Amino acid sequence: MARLLPRPTFSEEGDMSRASAIEPRRTLDPEQVAQWLVRHPDFFVGREGLLQQLKVPHPEARDGAISLLERLVHDLRHRADGAEQRLNALLDTARHNEAQYQRVRELILVLLETDSRDAMAQTLATTLSERFKVRAVALWRPVLPGDPPAEALQPPTFALNDTISMRLEALLDGHHSRCCSLDADSWRHLLPVSPEGLSHGSCAVTRLALGTRQGYLIIANPDPEYFRATLGTLFVDYLGDVVGRLLIRNAA
């Protein structure tokens, strides 16, 4: 009879080595770890020592690391600095808007005191120059029956014609009011009376409702960024509404 040999056995260490050779080693996916920590926010409760042992890349150095708590403090300080900067920007904007409102209020009050179209236009040009750094103004309106002839109009008021209307409508580009750049050719035609040396820059233009007709108000500055295209037109819209109504009122 054949002798039975004992069945070979493996040690625990040998079994593990053999299992490692058979099955590939698994690694944790970072995204899965992150999602798991989000679902278990209390994981570090009672494991505060682990927080102190964790190291993360230094945010301001290519090489090196800092503790997780130090990184959190750094990020919180960075966020606080950003929030402070945004708050200061909002405060600056609020102060600018308040000053702008006061200037607009003063302008409207002095315009309301005028009793003629010429006086209103002259006051408009003077106040815009003194209070808003507007260097050139033109008030284009149609000459209606009963109005003085076109040649009798005093700057900054000018008689509107089809050519000027087309130029102004091209600037408006379908808008009621608009801020935009102004080249030398447009400046020469749309702002016939300007301080010497001014030939181009930026402008704000708006339509004026004059009953069944319409006119235009254009104000300009040689600084190409003063009336940049990204600016809002609330002030220009409001000013155009007031000027249009005063032109109608003072026509009587």
Characteristic key phrases:
252 residues, alpha+beta, Beta-Lactamase, 2 domains, 5-stranded mixed sheet
Put the structure in a nutshell:
By secondary structure, the chain is α+β, with helices and mostly antiparallel strands. It contains 8 helices and 7 strands; from the N terminus they run H-H-H-E-E-H-H-E-E-H-E-H-E-E-H. The chain folds into 2 domains: 66-113; 116-251, Beta-Lactamase (2-Layer Sandwich).
Q: How would you describe what is shown here?
A:
By secondary structure, the protein is an alpha+beta fold. It has two domains: 66-113; 116-251, Beta-Lactamase. 49% of the residues lie in helices and 16% in strands. The chain has helices spanning 12-22, 30-39, 48-53, 68-112, 117-132, 162-172, 184-190, 234-251; strands at 55-57, 65-67, 136-141, 157-159, 177-182, 201-210, 213-221. The strands form two sheets. It has a five-stranded mixed sheet with strand order 4-3-7-6-5, sandwiched between helices. A two-stranded antiparallel ribbon has the order 1-2. Strand 1 and strand 2 form a beta hairpin. Helix 4 runs antiparallel to helix 5 (117-132). The mean pLDDT is 84.
Overall pLDDT score: 84
CATH homologous superfamily assignment of the largest domain: GAF domain
Please give the domain count: 2
Helix content: 40-55%
Can you tell me the residue ranges where pLDDT is under 50 for at least 5 consecutive residues?
Answer: none
Query: First CA to last CA: what distance?
Result: 138 Å
Secondary-structure element order, N to C: HHHEEHHEEHEHEEH
Number of helical segments?
8
Count of DSSP E strands? 7
What is CATH's topology name of the largest domain?
A: Beta-Lactamase
Approximately what portion of the residues adopt beta-strand conformation?
A: 15-25%
CATH class of the largest domain: Alpha Beta
Q: Tell me the Rg in angstroms.
A: 37 Å
* Largest sheet descriptor: 5 strands, mixed
Strand order of the largest sheet: 4-3-7-6-5
Overall SS class:
alpha+beta
